[in-house]
Structures are given as C-alpha cells and as structure tokens.
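Researcher: We plan to redesign the surface later, but first we want a full-length starting point. Tokens attached.
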C-alpha cells in the first residue's frame, strides 16, 4: 500500500514533519540519510529548509530534484510511533 505525503515542514536541524493521506503523521530525522551527489546540497541547512511536498511524486522533495521515498518516511514514523 502506497500512501502519499500531503503536508510537510521543516522542524529543526535535519528533521521534517510529514503527514500522509491516511492521517499518519510524525517527525523524521534525515541527518543520516543525506549521502550521494543529489543529496549533497541538502547538507546546507538553509537549502534543506526548502523541503516541500511534490504532489506528482507524493513525497517530499527539494528544488534540485532530490526526494525521499514515501515508503521510507512512513516506515520511519511507524518505527518511532
């Protein structure tokens, strides 16, 4: 079952809060997930704060095209719930 992200915002440091279309919501710390060329710009906190929901992808994304799989975000929230 794939559930889309419908809302997201920067919380602090490299933590984002997300809400899914099924009502599940929570914070995800992405500080250990920012590796690889596409994620390099996100290590700059000013750039990281530009996180937004990409409605076509159903997940969070940044202006350079970096995105995080919604399944990964959902699992992270479920583990910490």
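Model: Full-length starting sequence:
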């Amino acid at each position: 079952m794939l559930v889309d992200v419908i809302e997201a915002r920067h919380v602090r440091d490299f933590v984002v809060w997300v809400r899914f279309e099924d009502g599940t919501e929570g914070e995800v710390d992405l500080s250990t997930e920012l590796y690889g060329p596409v994620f390099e710009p996100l290590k700059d906190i000013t750039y990281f704060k530009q996180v937004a929901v990409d409605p076509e992808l159903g997940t969070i994304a940044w202006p350079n095209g970096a995105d995080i799989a919604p399944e990964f975000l959902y699992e992270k929230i479920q583990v910490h719930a």
